[in-house]
Specification:
homodimer, 353 residues, alpha/beta, Rossmann fold, Dehydroquinate synthase-like, alpha domain, two-stranded antiparallel ribbon, 15% strand
Chain lengths: 353, 353
């Protein structure tokens, strides 16, 4: 499958990826290869990687606990300390293998350790494959605020192999579908129709490749989030707030990112219909298709104020103003839209109805 | 005094600096100006700054405790949290006013907050004026390891005003002299001679301007520390290790950076004499001049093993190999030199003799 060239690095696929990574390690004068894993990727993914690589170099494995709750500066400090104790120097390489928590946090750890060492990302969940492979975003959460601390930093390469999807749960794969649907709705009707028409067979590697290709086009067009790149936030303004709220509420289950974004896409499409006449038929189709895949997030009316308050802390806000990406139709986005609190509540009502 | 143009930003001097900063704040669409201070710069420097600026914008002051001991991720977390609580967004500006701890840490905090907000540095100590104004280094310590976590990130501008030196102690000013001597020994004999000839009057703004000019030439020539820039480490290989050792020893006084680098320059010049025939007369002159200014750091023979061990953790090491910058003569540097443990101990003996 064809390599995708991002800003400054390649995204390689399957066997070609291992070949390229082996060559990279062998040709660069790398002192030690560190591999950042969580307990899941350590057990299920690392053996695959080690078998596929043909390199003659020392590996040091650093394991952190899985989960968004551990994507914080405390975990970073323990990894920075481990790198220090294991003698990592500026010619060391960090390979991050795992879901988005590992690749986002590992990228941040690498690019701030001794003012930056090189890193390679191997996403093992569908979400991290389609969302985190390009864009150069690294970071960790600050309390419940997602990715509040981070920088833009590019890996040396990204390696995609759907074999790793066999190591994660069905739920995790479903979660990643939300981002793919987002690419479809904002940028590629054909991709969306693969879901809406309930095509019997979805070829996973094809939709991963197409999603990365789309994100890459968007990112290359707009590297610092001035314009087009904002479409990547579709479904995320309300979605992120709901995700944060459920994460910080002791009596609520933690949502997958996909569940939250699914809710976000339905509600933001509803708002799009009210403000920009997004076609009602498509809205209903979107709601039905997405709820069939993701089910309903049990939001309560009493949650609304907190959710709306959390939106005000979104990184993308300027002057305390919440900015939405909305749609006039599929593939027809409008950025920097203002939405009243009443309409947000109405959209949540529509979602729950 | 003439503005110095660094990689991507200007270093302005005195009244011209305030004018440029006021224009910058007024012309950019900045939502809120945050000012990072410690208790000293808050009391003594901030009033000067606020008086000189002619801007119509809200200021929010964030104070942290002074001292290298607080240049850590815990302090960063409290500042990131304060920025969050005060609603800092991507169009906020952070002005760091204080010594190197404030400018290094503030640069790191700004450039990692929401993946980067703009910042301006106003160094108020001699050391931070001549050392931290150019080079784009930001960072914090990890345990006793100085600047272990950080990135390269440029401020929007740097503002130099020697009036702030009236607010810091004599000891602090002396500390900064070590870096100026370093620029002299490695790069500009004329600058060195201002010290060695004990010129009655040293014009402080002139030697600050010349030091920044030198560092800027070096940094522009070699932005990512491949070659020439390594001369900035002269005196720092042994100096940093001694500084770290005194910082982590409960029964030792904390050294100023200048005291440690003064020791480093004498010992590394001694090694230069042994390995590269650095002229003995100059070595003796350097030892005498530097000790007259800085006194003697009370290193004990029993400290040697720890000091040598700490050198092995220097960020600049590759493959565990400690690299020295040495001199064949004044202005004649040699980079990437290996030195035996015995010779390092001999150099410390010479320093103490």
């Amino acid at each position: 499958m064809q390599t995708i060239t991002s800003t400054s690095y390649p995204v390689h696929f399957q066997e070609n990826g291992y070949k390229e990574l082996s060559t990279f390690i062998n040709q660069k004068n790398i002192t030690t290869v560190f591999i950042l894993v969580d307990e899941n990727s350590n057990e299920h993914c690392l053996p695959i990687l080690q078998q596929e690589l043909t390199v003659d170099v020392t590996f040091e494995i650093i394991e952190v606990e899985s989960g968004e709750i551990n994507k914080n500066l405390g975990t970073c400090m323990s990894v920075w300390q481990a790198l220090t104790d294991l003698g990592a120097d500026r010619k060391s390489l960090l390979i991050n293998i795992g879901g988005g928590v590992i690749t986002d946090m590992g990228g941040f750890i690498a690019s701030t350790y001794k003012r930056g060492i090189e890193f390679v990302n191997i996403p093992t969940t569908l979400l991290s494959m389609v969302d985190a492979s390009v864009g150069g975003k690294t970071g960790v959460d600050l309390g419940v605020l997602k990715n509040q601390i981070g920088i833009f930093a590019d890996p040396q390469m990204v390696l995609i192999d759907p074999i790793y999807l066999q190591t994660v749960s069905e739920k995790e794969i479903t979660s990643g579908m939300a981002e793919i649907i987002k690419y479809g709705l904002t940028y590629d009707q054909t991709l969306w129709e693969k879901f809406s028409e309930k095509t019997a067979e979805i070829n996973i590697i094809d939709i991963i490749h197409r999603s990365i290709e789309i994100k890459n086009e968007v990112v290359l067009e707009d590297q610092f989030e001035g314009g087009l790149r904002k479409i990547l936030n579709f479904g995320h303004t309300i979605g992120h707030a709901v995700e944060s709220h459920f994460l910080e509420s002791k009596d609520k289950k933690t949502l997958t990112h996909g569940e939250a974004i699914a809710l976000g896409m339905i509600t933001e499409t509803y708002i799009s219909n009210k403000l920009f006449n997004f076609p009602l038929k498509d809205l209903e189709d979107i709601k039905k298709t997405i709820i069939t895949i993701f089910g309903i997030v049990p939001v309560l009316k009493s949650d609304y104020p907190t959710i709306i308050d959390l939106m005000k802390h979104d990184k993308k806000n300027v002057n305390g103003q919440v900015n939405f990406v909305l749609l006039e139709g599929i593939e027809k986005y409008k950025i920097d839209c203002k939405v009243s609190t009443d309409l947000i509540e109405e959209a949540l009502d529509y979602y729950l109805a």
